[in-house]
Amino acid sequence: MKNINFIMVASGILALAGCVSDNSPTPENMARNTAQTAPADLQLACASASATKFGGDSATVLPVSSAAVDGGKYQIILDSKGQRSTCLIDSTGAVLSVEKV
């Protein structure tokens, strides 16, 4: 009889444990999704502009990060063999500036 009571109590606890509400944020509310990154073609255009301005092979210039800034523009951080540069480009692909960091 004690074993049956134990099983009944344990079953009740397990049933209640399954009734936990899920308060996790939706994907659009997660911190990692709040910044809009630049499209790949704009990142490649910046990599090419950086290679042209500072010399070197565009295959060695890699986008590290990007983010949307005011007015439909993107700021892209680039790395070429440890040398960092920043590129400002608009949504049409016009490179506005490329500077070493």
TrEMBL record:
This is Lipoprotein. Residues 1-17 form the signal peptide. Keywords: Signal. It comes from Phyllobacterium trifolii. The lineage of its organism: Bacteria, Pseudomonadati, Pseudomonadota, Alphaproteobacteria, Hyphomicrobiales.
